[in-house]
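The freezer alarm interrupted the setup, so I double-checked each line after restarting. Inputs confirmed:
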Amino acid sequence: AQSVAQPEDQVNVAEGNPLTVKCTYSVSGNPYLFWYVQYPNRGLQFLLKYITGDNLVKGSYGFEAEFNKSQTSFHLKKPSALVSDSALYFCAVRVVGAGNNRKLIWGLGTSLAVNP
Amino acid sequence: NAGVTQTPKFQVLKTGQSMTLQCAQDMNHNSMYWYRQDPGMGLRLIYYSASEGTTDKGEVPNGYNVSRLNKREFSLRLESAAPSQTSVYFCASSEGGQAYYEQYFGPGTRLTVT
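Predicted 3D structure, all chains:
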């Protein structure tokens, strides 16, 4: 079955340290992958996506993600975390279902806490 | 440019009552979506509209109806609210299909059904 997983419910990191939020997937065909962020009491905001091309994708707010086909992963990274990065992060992946129907499936989210 | 707006922000309903959640976008996007977000369940698609005049069921459509009133507006109706529909509801829009284009989300409606 096609799926996306965020193996960590919560990630804690000290301000100024690098952060990684993990995402793995299992899909048929070429994966289209997305990261979104949700700040408290707000809607989700798009961070970045991988469709094709360079495996390292740069996005908003200094975030980047690395597409690794062999490990079927798309981990979100930032070299130096800020307290304001504390939020809920969602990974999503395109799947192609019956009748060539394309849709997104969402991970359950990872709560990132950046400690001052 | 307000992006995606939703009304109301909060609502409390009694079981069996009906209500409509309103959503509008000013980005001239073709596609619009309704999601619900519940703790431990992530984001689940209720209905979507790929383009003006079309609507399709998502993952959890039971108990809901939608109307794509025009290109800007996409409403979600609960005909007979149930406690299981207590959730945070998000409307979103995108230039094209969700599987390729980034989505823009509204601020959400927090609904409680007692």
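Quick read of the result. Chain B has no helices and eleven strands.
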